[in-house]
C-alpha cells in the first residue's frame, strides 16, 4: 500500500506539472516574478547516438557517440570538431563508447576519462581508460579498470569526479539481474577509484572498487557538493533518483522503489537498503542528469535537470534546501526533440541537451530569452 500511494503521488505530481507548454516555467510558487522566459534552439545536428555531453573547463562542449567518436563542440556556433575515434570500441545494442569526464584541473592536467565496451578475447567487456589531450587529439591511453561485464543493454556507464578527486563509475547489471547483489561482481555497481586507477584505502571493502551495489541500470550521475545523485532505470515499475551512499545496497533485483511490497521490507532491513528520493511508475526511462543553480534561470535554481528517453522530455526536479527530497517536478520540451539522453549546464547557466534518436541526433541549447 505504501508503494502504491507513493507511486500515485509521484504520478499525480508528474501529470500536474507535465501539461505545460514547451517553454513554460514554474519555480514551485516561490517568487514567480523572478521567472524568466526560455528559448530553445538546435545548436548542432547530424550526430549518431551521442551518449555523453559535458561542459569542459576549456569552455567547449565535449560529447561521445556510441560508435567511438569523441568531439568538441563550440557552444556558441555549434561547430563540431572531431577529437578522436577509438578503434577498439564495439557498439552492440546500447553499448559502445559511453561515459566521459574531464580532469577538474584540466588546464594543467588535461586528462580525459572515458568508459566503453569492447571485445576482450571474444567477450563483450567494459573498461575505463584515461587519455591525455594534446590540444588536438587524445594520446597516451592508460587502462584504469577493466573486466566489467557488458551487454547490449543495462550498461549504465556514467562517470563523475568527486570534490576530493575520486572517479565514480556506474555499471548496470549487464542484463543479468543477480549480478547486482554479488559484491564480487562489478556489474550492477557504482565503483570508486583513484584517478590513477588504484583503489582508495577508504573504500567499503578493502582492495575493491565497490562503492554501492544493487543497481539495475544507472545512467545518470552528478555531484552536488559532496552529495552524489544517480538516476536509474527500473524494470516495469519504479524508475528512480537516488542519493548514493558509501557501501549501501540499492535493492535490485529484490527491491524496486520503496521497501514496501511483499518481501521487500524484510530484505531492506537485513540488507541496509537505501530508498530512492523519487520514483516513477509508469516508467519514463531517465538518463543523464546535471545540477542547475545559476541565477540565469532563477526558477531552475537548486534543481536536478534530467534527460528522459521513453517520455522524450527534460525534467526539472526542484530539490528542498537539504537536497534530500524532490519538492516539484516540471516538464519541458515533451516530444519536441525526441528521446533525450544527457544534459549539461555551463557556468553561465546555459543548458545543453543531446538527443538519442539514432537519426540526425541533435544538441539543443536552452537559455533565457
From TrEMBL:
One Pfam family here: GSDH
Coiled-coil intervals, chain numbering: none
Entry keywords, A to Z: Signal
InterPro entries found in the cross-reference section: 6-blade_b-propeller_TolB-like (IPR011042), Glc/Sorbosone_DH (IPR012938), Quinoprot_gluc/sorb_DH_b-prop (IPR011041)
Top-level taxonomic group: Bacteria
Residues of the signal peptide: 1-24
Keyword Signal: yes
Domain Glucose/Sorbosone dehydrogenase residues, every copy: 48-359
Name the record gives this protein: PQQ-dependent sugar dehydrogenase
Amino acid at each position: 500500500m505504501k508503494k502504491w500511494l507513493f507511486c500515485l503521488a509521484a504520478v499525480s505530481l508528474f501529470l500536474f506539472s507535465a501539461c505545460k507548454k514547451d517553454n513554460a516555467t514554474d519555480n514551485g510558487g516561490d517568487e514567480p516574478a523572478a521567472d524568466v522566459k526560455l528559448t530553445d534552439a538546435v545548436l548542432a545536428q547530424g550526430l549518431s547516438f551521442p551518449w555523453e555531453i559535458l561542459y569542459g573547463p576549456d569552455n567547449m562542449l565535449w560529447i561521445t557517440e556510441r560508435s567511438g567518436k569523441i568531439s568538441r563542440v563550440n557552444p556558441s556556433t555549434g561547430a563540431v570538431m572531431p577529437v578522436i575515434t577509438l578503434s577498439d570500441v564495439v557498439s552492440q545494442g546500447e553499448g559502445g563508447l559511453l561515459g566521459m569526464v574531464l580532469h577538474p584541473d584540466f588546464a594543467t592536467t588535461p586528462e580525459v576519462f572515458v568508459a566503453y565496451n569492447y571485445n576482450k578475447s571474444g567477450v563483450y567487456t567494459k573498461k575505463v581508460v584515461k587519455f591525455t589531450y594534446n590540444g588536438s587529439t587524445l594520446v597516451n591511453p592508460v587502462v584504469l579498470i577493466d573486466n566489467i561485464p557488458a551487454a547490449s543493454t543495462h550498461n549504465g556507464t556514467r562517470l563523475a569526479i568527486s570534490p576530493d578527486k575520486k572517479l565514480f563509475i556506474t555499471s548496470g547489471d549487464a542484463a543479468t539481474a543477480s549480478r547486482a547483489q554479488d559484491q564480487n561482481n562489478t556489474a550492477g555497481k557504482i565503483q570508486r577509484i583513484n584517478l590513477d586507477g588504484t583503489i582508495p584505502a577508504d573504500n567499503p571493502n578493502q582492495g575493491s572498487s565497490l562503492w554501492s551495489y544493487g543497481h539495475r541500470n544507472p545512467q545518470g550521475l552528478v555531484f552536488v557538493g559532496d552529495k552524489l545523485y544517480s538516476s536509474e532505470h527500473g524494470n516495469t515499475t519504479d524508475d528512480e533518483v537516488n542519493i548514493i551512499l558509501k557501501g549501501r545496497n540499492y535493492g535490485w533485483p529484490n527491491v524496486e522503489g520503496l521497501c514496501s511490497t511483499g518481501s521487500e521490507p524484510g530484505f531492506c532491513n537485513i540488507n541496509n537498503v537505501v530508498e530512492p528520493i523519487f520514483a516513477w511508475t509508469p516508467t519514463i526511462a531517465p538518463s543523464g542528469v546535471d545540477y542547475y543553480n545559476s541565477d540565469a534561470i532563477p526558477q531552475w535554481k537548486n534543481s536536478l535537470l534530467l534527460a528522459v528517453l521513453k517520455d522524450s522530455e527534460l525534467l526539472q526536479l526542484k530539490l528542498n534546501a537539504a537536497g534530500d527530497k524532490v519538492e516539484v517536478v516540471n516538464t519541458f520540451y515533451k516530444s519536441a526533440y525526441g528521446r533525450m539522453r544527457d544534459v549539461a549546464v555551463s557556468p553561465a547557466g546555459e543548458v545543453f541537451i543531446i538527443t538519442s534518436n539514432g537519426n540526425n541526433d541533435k544538441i539543443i541549447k536552452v537559455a533565457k530569452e
